[in-house]
Amino acid sequence: MPHIELIEKVKAFLKQDNKKDVKKSKVIKILNKLIEKKQNMKKEIKKCENKKEKQKLQEKLEALKKLIKKTKKLI
Amino acid sequence: MIRNVGVIILFLFLGYFVVSQENIKIIFSGIAIFLVGMYFMENGFKLFSGGVLEKVLANFTSNIFKSITTGFVTTTLVQSSSLISVIVISFLSVELLTLAQGIGIIFGSNLGSTTTAWIVSSLGLKIKISMYAMPMLIFGVILKFFKNNTYKGIGNILLGLGFIFLGISYMKDGFETLKDSIDLASFAMTGFSGLIVYILIGALATIVIQSSGATMAIIITALSAGSLIYINALALAIGANIGTTVTAIIGSLTSNENGKRLAFAHLIFNVITALFAVVFLHYIKDFVDILAPYFGIDAKNYSMKLALFHTIFNIIGVIIVAPFTGYIVILSKRFIKKKVSNYSKPKYLLESNLTIPNAAILSIRKESINLYENCQKAILHALSLHTSNLRTKEDLKQELTKDIKKIDTNLDEIYQENLKVLYSEIIKYSSFAQENMTSSQLKVVGNYKRSAKEIIDILKSTRDIQRNVNFYLKSKNEYIKKEYNILREELATILIDITYLDNDNLEEVDKLTQLEIIKDRLSQNDISNSEKIDILIRENKIKATMATSLINDSAAVYSIQKKLVEIAMLLFIKDELIQEIGEQTDASY
Fold this sequence. Notes:
The complex is a heterodimer.
Chain A: H1 3-47, H2 51-73
Chain B: H1 2-20, H2 22-49, H3 52-59, H4 64-78, H5 81-93, H6 99-112, H7 115-126, H8 130-144, H9 149-181, H10 191-209, H11 212-224, H12 230-252, H13 257-279, H14 281-291, H15 302-321, H16 325-335, H17 357-382, H18 393-401, H19 411-433, H20 439-472, H21 478-501, H22 508-538, H23 544-572, H24 576-583
Helix pairs in contact in B: 1-2, 2-9, 4-6, 5-6, 5-13, 5-17, 6-13, 6-15, 6-16, 7-11, 7-15, 8-9, 9-11, 10-12, 11-12, 11-15, 12-13, 12-15, 13-15, 13-16, 14-15, 17-19, 17-20, 18-21, 19-20, 20-23, 21-22, 21-23, 22-23
């Protein structure tokens, strides 16, 4: 393989790798946010006394759990 | 016809004048080259900034002081107040900036445009500027051949600067040699009449050239060559400020009401500033004489004193007018009212935004949301639900308890006469806007186009179920009536839930969580609906024909709801990564 072609290939590979790293760190940031929200939601559910309100919060908690699973798939 | 003849006569006259008068030819060539330079500079900054300029204008405007400073700094850098005005108008049209923020930027931009006079009077006249022009032109052309937009942008900026310098040099030479043949200074007029005449000439010249910067360059070079007397040059500078307002007004004619309001505010600012400058002309002139030594300006250096005068009277204008920005906003809203437009007419697809990718993307997003809102209204009407008081789920519950009054809604007609036009305009506008976009911007626009297509799809699907909904809601069989009412409620509920997501203050993650809850509810509803239909058939509560209609329509409603979730994801979640998380497959959905 000619040198120039090889250099271009390596450059493209590094660029792609760099992009992946940036994406990964962004995903981790979102994941942390979701986990924090999930924990807050659990606390809110414990505090809540209204049955209807509690059910709504429970729905939200389930949604957050699903989103955490989906986010983990991207890492 | 008369206009065409007028233009031909004007060209012939100008042609004769330019050919017969060597000095005039040089001056006019200088003006033309200067204007070409400004054109290249503008284009260069558009390419080079890659959205940075737009981001700065959108984010550093939280108060009037910041808006003015941002307007000043950006105009000083770009050397074009018209480019800044175009961006501000485009941001106003998509509601990215408030009118008060826009007005602040324009005040600052007016101040920033005074730096042109400083550049011309200090650099342009003191040193042999054409010497620097040639290398700039050479490197500019070389860089222009690069594929990369940043290099191309720098190339255009260099070409722009090169042409501007060359233009100034030509104008300077022209005025210097003209002085030997005609003594323009002999036409000088003093007194009040002279002031008015020269203000008018300054304004007219700026309207014709469409650039106050170019007019200031002409005034300064003519002044330095002795073709003008100082007091007349001051009047011309005031006129140039007024003339630039006319340029802004002409530019705003094609924009929406916010663009017109901005031009109105600009007019108020420049008229008040000009009036102040006329009334206190001699005081400001004396003030300039006092200040000049502190800036190292010689008492006889009238060109730089003119630049100082130009800056001072614009600063005074900002000090006088800026505290009243709130009143100007109220006044402009009172004078220029928002037009109630036919909903087939696009509200946000402004032609001026086409060449600014980020503004064009915002226009397309806003218009797609507009299409969605119109479609949502049509769907709710088709389900015989009044939209005027339908904002929350509580409103919906109340609406459902009322007797059903059929709303005469022909979805076919609405589609053909209104929404199809709007949809076509979005597609057409996107295609033109995509010409100037990067691959990531193309992807975003592609998503908005997809959402617009899905909006139209759900309208068509609703049309298909509308007949059955209206038919069975009047049925004497309470069971089928109840089932169709549930379908109606489910569809209206999701529309209300999605409307809640159209809120820029809501965190993107929270929007995604909300959509996840909706998805969950959808799959639960789908399962329970099919179970219920089975029970109704088994218990012989509905006829087989009713059951088949209900099965088909339940499936159609489920498909509409899934598309609505997708539309909400594309329109209301801007972060691509969060969108990607939302699009991950889930076994339960």
